[in-house]
Write a structure and sequence with these properties.
- The structure is a single chain.
- This protein has 5 domains: 1-27 and 285-304; 29-130, Killer Toxin P4, Chain A; 143-243, Killer Toxin P4, Chain A (2-Layer Sandwich), CATH 3.30.430.20; 329-419, Phosphorylase Kinase, domain 1 (2-Layer Sandwich), CATH 3.30.200; 426-663, Transferase(Phosphotransferase), domain 1, CATH 1.10.510.10.
- It has 669 residues and is an alpha+beta fold.
- The strands form 7 sheets. It has a 5-stranded antiparallel β-sheet with strand order 1-4-5-3-2. A 5-stranded antiparallel β-sheet has the order 6-9-10-8-7. Strands 11-12-13-15-14 form a 5-stranded antiparallel β-sheet, sandwiched between helices.
- A hairpin with a 2-residue loop joins strand 14 (404-410) and strand 15 (413-419).
- Helices cover 38% and strands 18% of the residues.
Length: 669
């Protein structure tokens, strides 16, 4: 029966492949725009023209890398050298890519017959050439704007702009971190409306260059598409587009040809109708339902096959919860597996220890390197409570959160297994004179943004609303790419669906990072984490611990010092010497501004994490004026001494007590 199903799918796939490619080949690619500056030109019958024809011929040859959607070619020497590239949209087939590039190669010399530098955009591809090297170099200009002719309603405008900005930021990060520098994403705007987005960079760019290019083009939103329900910016090295309908193919992969997409975009009023328009509509009407059925059957088949493979390896079935996430039973490790992975907890594998227990480096039988945390036997946490909390943390899946791989519960042994993060924690680099030089401004900006995304996931995007309550530099782990991963959920709390804040008599956390309302009154909320984030940002910019700033009167800290310099209009005086000369002044000042908004005494004045990400990535957004911070420092210290009996020099306030909503899990450092 399985072979019969596979044969049916294969026949259907071949059938649709032939139909769709026949339809698509009947129409020319959709022209968008072209730019050919006349600053440098060539003459007819010149050597440059000969080399240009060679490059265009190479880009449109059958041997070009159409399956990769990107290729480059060069021809000639010295002053007559020509560099060329093509980029096809990530959701089109290799055949559509080839047809578009071939068409563009023939068309470009008609549109730009004398210019040495040209870029021409179609909906399906871009072709660009120049007399200067362009491969691996990020360039925004030349660029062009296109927008939908319809406007969003005034009542929906504010919500639409906020949702759109957050969506474009998220999908840009996703594209920059992918190997093909292409990503699509959608977000619900209203109950009945969805915003669809597509972003892409040329794959020869680094992750940072791709993010930088997309950030600059997104900043042009007000110029390009103010109040428009759809729009796009097409630049030399990157592009983005958004609409209120699915304009891209949501099912295609890099290796399979796409079915036809939905109706032509309404913003291109000058788009010539294709000859095969009526046949395209008929084919789409028949093909879409059949394609959906095939995809659903294929997905079911893949799921069954995956379960069979896992059953063979583990000898048991896979348990999934209502979210499709593996349950604690699937995450369980045998104690013998843990002993084998750590060579029976040998000292040579020990990474560190603390009040929670010890951390070991281990290697699983699969070859995967992990961090294994052996919790202290003095822990008062019960077995069922331990398993429930593991189950909660296991559901937190985000690139900026340290990932829990499993656990072991065997008698008195309570063991947690995490992904191995090689570069230790942020404080290991940030507060060391020599190691801090490895953190240039680009890396620090990336760390700030990654932390913000991780917190946003905890606050809004995960199924659970989680308040971390102990965000600090030592709880930010750095992976091999120096990307941040939030760790240590030992003091976290879960909020209900309609809950906005809570109170506690047990003040836990780290002094200096705690918000005033939490330190004084025991009130915590999403804005408590925002305050801690603001302190972290200031530490990343200054390279100084918050606790290292004390004045003679005992009131000074990092927040107070930065506020004073901000008022005096000299905020850059505290910028870390280790990154001087490598940072962009406007970005640093904007991050200081955002941080001061985060550490305002009134929690209601602090921005939410989604607004923080919008402010970080759009220089066209006007930031509110921050209100004075640090007025409650003396009260906080006095309250802290009263509550804990500790001296003001103590740095951490901790509690061993546990309630039903706590997650007493500490990530490895």
């Amino acid at each position: 029966m399985s072979s019969c199903f596979k044969s049916s799918v294969s026949l259907i796939s071949v059938f649709f492949f032939i139909i769709f490619n026949t339809v698509s080949s009947a129409t020319d690619p959709t022209y968008l725009f072209h730019i050919c500056p006349n600053t440098t030109t060539f003459t007819r019958n010149s050597t440059y023209l000969t080399n240009l024809r060679t490059v265009l011929s190479s880009l449109s040859s059958p041997n070009a890398a159409y399956a990769s959607r990107f290729d480059n070619a060069t021809a000639g020497d010295d002053n007559n050298r020509v560099y060329g590239v093509f980029l096809c949209r990530g959701d089109v087939s290799a055949e559509i890519c080839r047809d578009c590039v071939t068409f563009a190669a023939n068309e470009t010399l008609q549109r730009c017959p004398r210019e040495k530098e040209t870029v021409i955009w179609y909906d399906e591809c871009m072709v660009r050439y120049s007399n200067q090297s362009i491969v691996g170099k990020m360039r925004v200009m030349p660029a062009a704007f296109l927008s939908n002719t319809q406007n969003i309603t005034e009542s929906q405008l504010s919500r639409f702009n906020e949702s759109l900005a957050a969506l474009l930021i998220d999908v840009s990060v996703k594209a920059a971190s992918s190997s093909i520098k292409f990503a699509t994403e959608r977000a619900n705007f209203t109950v009945f409306q969805t915003i669809y987005s597509l972003v892409q960079c040329t794959p020869d760019l680094t992750n940072l260059d791709c993010e930088s290019c997309l950030r600059q083009t997104i900043n042009w939103l007000p110029l390009c598409c103010d109040r428009r329900i759809g729009g796009r910016v097409i630049a030399s090295s990157c592009s983005f587009r958004y609409e209120l309908y699915p304009f891209y193919n949501e099912t295609i992969t890099a290796a399979t040809p796409p079915p036809n997409v939905s109706a032509p975009p309404p913003q291109l009023s000058s788009q010539p109708p294709g000859k095969g328009k009526s046949s395209t509509v008929i084919v789409t009407a028949v093909a879409v339902p059949v394609s959906v059925c095939v995809l659903l059957l294929g997905a079911a088949c893949c799921l069954l096959a995956r379960r069979r493979r896992r059953n063979k390896l583990s000898g048991e079935g896979e348990d999934l919860d209502e979210d499709g996430i593996t349950s604690t039973e699937t995450l369980h490790f045998q104690f013998s597996e843990i002993e084998a992975a750590t060579d029976k907890f040998s000292e040579s594998n020990k990474l560190g220890h603390g009040g929670f227990g010890e951390v070991y480096k281990g290697q699983l039988i699969t070859g995967e390197t992990v961090a294994i945390k052996r919790l202290s036997r003095g822990s008062t946490q019960g077995a069922e409570e331990f398993k429930n909390e593991v189950d909660v943390v296991a559901k937190l899946q985000h690139r900026n959160l340290a990932k829990l791989l499993g656990y072991c519960l065997d008698g008195d042994e309570k063991i947690l297994v995490y992904e191995f993060v090689p570069n230790k924690s942020l404080d290991y680099f940030l507060f060391d004179t020599e190691k801090s030089r490895l953190l240039d401004w680009q890396r620090r900006y990336k760390i700030i943004e990654g932390i913000a995304r991780g917190i946003l996931y905890l606050h809004r995007d995960s199924r659970l609303t989680i308040i971390h309550r102990d965000l600090k530099a030592s709880n930010i782990l750095l992976d091999a790419d120096m990307s941040p991963k939030i760790s240590d959920f030992g003091m976290a709390r879960i909020f209900g669906a309609d809950q906005t804040q809570a109170n506690t008599q047990r003040i836990v956390g780290t002094y200096g990072y705690m918000s005033p309302e939490y330190a004084i009154h025991g009130q915590y909320s999403l804005k408590s984490d925002v305050y801690s984030f603001g302190v972290l940002v200031l530490e990343l910019i200054t390279g100084k611990k918050n606790s290292s700033f004390y004045e003679e009167d005992g009131l000074g800290d990092l927040v107070t010092c930065v506020w004073k310099l901000w008022v005096e209009n000299s905020p850059l005086e505290l910028v870390d010497e280790a990154m001087r000369g490598s940072f962009q002044t406007n970005e640093v000042i904007r991050c200081i501004h955002i941080a001061l908004l985060c550490v305002q005494d009134d929690s209601s004045e602090r921005p939410s994490m989604d607004n923080i990400l919008v402010m970080m990535n759009s220089f066209t957004v006007t930031l509110p004026i921050p209100k004075r911070s640090g007025l409650l420092l003396r009260t906080m210290r006095h309250s802290r001494v009263q509550r804990s009996g500790a001296s003001p020099s103590d740095q951490s306030l901790t509690s061993k007590s546990v309630d039903d909503s706590s997650i007493t899990i500490v990530y490895p450092r």
